[in-house]
Amino acid sequence: MRCHFSFRYGALSCLLFIVAIAGCADPESATAPDASRPPLSITGELEAEKHVKIAPPSISRMWNYSIKRLVPENTHVKVGDLIVAFDDKPVRDRLIEKKSELAQARSELKNTVRKVEQTAKDDVLAVEEKRAEFDKAERRAAIIDQSLSKNERMKSAIDFEIATNDLALARALAELHEKSGKLEVSLAERKVDTLAAEVDLLQKQVDRLKVHAPIAGLVQYIPNWQGEKPSQGESVRFGQPVVLLSDLSRMQLRAQADEVDRSSLTLGAPVDVVVDSAQGKTLTGSIAELGRVVRDRSNNDRRRVIDLLVAIDSDEEVSLKPGMTATLNLADVTRELVAEAGSGE
Question: At 282, which helix (H) or strand (E)?
Fold first, then answer.
């Protein structure tokens, strides 16, 4: 019993001693952050907020495109300026062929219309001729004269019946010619319309092979998968971008942050951006987008990262280009560490 009391008394004494030491310590030093910890630093690549990738247009029956003309790299272009022209010979050859077919089809249409009109005139004359024969046969069949023999009266009746049938046949034939003529003209017109549409499409494709700038900006060549930039005379495949056109008025930084730093990043958080090739000039910005999905950095690098996009505040004193590397630091953390270092001195 006496041992148990001594143990409790010793533990209580130790606890009071620890509390006394803590009370004597400097409260600021107990709560102050570690000034030796490095700020969160992330490296990324600059890009224009508004940019367009120029690639070969979609042209029927074309998969390889030869570059006929290419504006020099790092050229500043205006809206509507020619950026790249691809060889249009394959399309132009088809255009010439279709134009020839269209001219022939239009000539055939004129001949068909002329033929139908002439057939209609002939049918009108044929109907009028048969009508005259019908009227004549009708008058003869209507004559009742005892002086005529029985055979003559029978012959008049037969002639009237034949004239009636001939008139009906002439009218039916004229109606048939009218319907078939309309069909022939319609088919010829449809052929002309089809060929005209093909010619118009090919002409538009020829024009589309001359790609003009949809926005004003800086021209930069896009390397292929082998790292080779496009040049005049080379061939590229459909879908392969050759030129990046960037509006430099608004720039942004695209980067990847390690998964462990995710808790330190929030949308709208201010950041400092240090561009490597701008003599260490520090720009300001804020986190505009923050990825929700964690992924591998690359196929060969299994480190888990999240994507983020930083909107950079414009600064006319600094010349920025897409592709430049830059480092972003959380502005609040950086300034806090600088303030702590100054107060420590």
Answer: strand 282-290
Give me the sheet containing 210-212, strands edge to edge: 210-212, 82-86, 64-70, 235-237
Residue type, 116: V
Q: Where are the alpha helices (DSSP H) in the chain?
A: 2-24, 27-31, 89-142, 150-208, 331-344
pLDDT per position as a tens digit, 104-146: 999 999 999 999 999 999 999 999 999 999 999 888 887 766 6
Task: Give the CATH number, domain containing residue 74.
Answer: 2.40.50
The answer to whether residue 75 is domain-embedded is yes
Residue 259 DSSP code: G
pLDDT tens per residue across span 192-237: 999 999 999 999 999 999 999 999 999 999 999 888 999 999 999 9
- Identity at 147, one-letter amino acid code: S
Tokens of 259: 């998964």
CA distance 236 to 245: 18
- Residue 115 counted as domain residue: yes
- Same domain? 203 vs 95: yes
pTM attached to this predicted model = 0.68
In this structure, are 179 and 217 located in the same domain? no
HEC string for 109-147: HHHHHHHHHHHHHHHHHHHHHHHHHHHHHHHHHHCCCCC
Burial degree of 273 (CB within 10 A; 0-12, 13-18, 19+): buried
Domain identity same for 100 and 187: yes
Claim to verify: residue 103 and residue 165 sit in the same structural domain = yes
Say how many domains are in the chain: 2
Last residue of a domain, one of 237, 253, 278: 237
User: Could you tell me the residue range of the domain that residue 150 belongs to?
Assistant: 91-207
224, 189: one domain: no
Residue 312 CB partners (closer than 8 Å, separation 6+): 46, 250, 251, 252, 253, 273, 283, 284, 285, 320
